[in-house]
Amino acid sequence: MNKLLTLILKGLVAVLPLGLTIYFIYWFVSSLEAVLQPVIPEQYYFSGMGLLAGLVSLLLIGLVINLYGIRWLIGLGNKVLIKIPLVKSIYGAIQDIITVFNLSRDSDMQSVVSVDVGN
Q: Mind listing the pLDDT tens digit for each residue in 41-53?
């Protein structure tokens, strides 16, 4: 029974970060869609405007994150999230996945090379 519970928890840890990410994106787009529909006039509104607004807002967030003060605030937020027990596990797993994808892109520049120079 203990081994079965361990296997279930391992499966949960493997699926949870991806599932939460997909759900967050779905929630973000549908929330923007629900907010935009009553605000934008009927003749300018089209289905999928939430997706477009989501992409634009993610672009703007990406631009704002490059500011020095914002990077400091994000670092402070990371330190706070890492101290919360359950959130630490989920947040750490998501950070590890992102780190793995970033390392695979920059692997050319991060390799250690040993050159033997003969005399």
A: 888 888 888 888 8
For 17-43, letters b (16+ CB in 10 Å) and e give beeeeeeeeeebbeebbeeeeeeeeee
CB contact at 8 A, 80 and 87: no
| Cβ partners under 8 Å of residue 71, min gap 6 | 65
Contacts of 9 (CB under 8 A, 6+ apart): none
Taking alpha carbons only, the member of 23, 76, 32 closest to residue 51 is 32
Inter-residue contact 94 to 21 (CB < 8 Å) = yes
**CA 84 – CA 13 distance, rounded (Å):** 17
Rounded CA-CA distance 31/24 in Å is 10
Q: What percent of the chain has pLDDT over 70?
A: 90
Chain segment 90-108, per-residue pLDDT in tens = 888 888 877 776 665 555 5
| pTM more than 0.90 | no
